[in-house]
Amino acid sequence: METWIKKAFEYTISIVRERSVKHELTHFDSGYIMLDVWLGDRLFVFQFENEIAGFSEGNEPDFSTVPDMSFRDLNTYRRRIDEIFGTENYRPKGYMDTILALEDPMLDELMNCFDEVMEAGHHAVIKWDGPRAQDRFTVMITIPGNPDAVFRKDGDDLKLAMKRVLEMYIQYFD
């Protein structure tokens, strides 16, 4: 499953679970995931497969006939999901979604680097501290079991903070 599809699924399921919305999750052998969600008397069926995330109201998604409801990038998908769930300012607990709301190819590449850091078993935090904070963003990477391996940057420029933390992290291993 593509990385952004996984994030789309994680974002959707985090909303559903935190709001205790009635839902049913099905994993299929062919590699896709289907999520049925009931919002009041409305049923939405979400499907996450390969390079596409999509949904339809009331029955199984058909990406060929519902092109406006199938998505090939996370930002477009997330905006539409926020409209459905009314979660424009939603922040899933522990989820690095601050940068997902921003459309910037460089941020996508930086996020892929942070995904690799986490896949290596290290911890990464990208946090929006709010509009009133002195430094709006906190970016940090830590290596468990090594108190000297803490790489942190606070600032108003998210890309710059992410780049600087990644540079410190890479230099640590050189």
What class would the helix/strand composition place it in? alpha+beta
Continuous helix count? 4
Rg of Cα set: 18 Å
Instruction: Indicate the overall shape.
Output: elongated
Across the major sheet, the strand order is: 1-2-3-4-5
Main sheet summary: 5 strands, antiparallel
Number of domains: 2
Low-confidence stretches: 62-68, 91-102
Level of helix content?
25-40%
What pattern of helices and strands is seen along the backbone? HEEEEEHHEEEH
N-end to C-end Cα span: 32 Å
Give average pLDDT, whole number.
73
Please report which band the strand proportion falls in: under 5%, 5-15%, 15-25%, 25-35%, 35-45% or over 45%: 25-35%
| Strands, total number | 8
Task: Please outline the helices and strands.
Layout: H1 3-18, E1 23-27, E2 33-39, E3 42-49, E4 52-57, E5 70-71, H2 74-85, H3 105-119, E6 123-128, E7 137-142, E8 150-155, H4 158-173
Helix pairs in contact: 1-2, 3-4
In short:
The protein has 174 residues and is of the alpha+beta class.
Written description of the protein model:
With 174 residues, the chain is α+β, with helices and mostly antiparallel strands. The chain folds into two domains: 3-85; 99-173, 2-Layer Sandwich (Double Stranded RNA Binding Domain), CATH 3.30.160. β3 and β4 form a beta hairpin. The chain contains four helices and eight strands; from the N terminus they run αβββββααβββα.
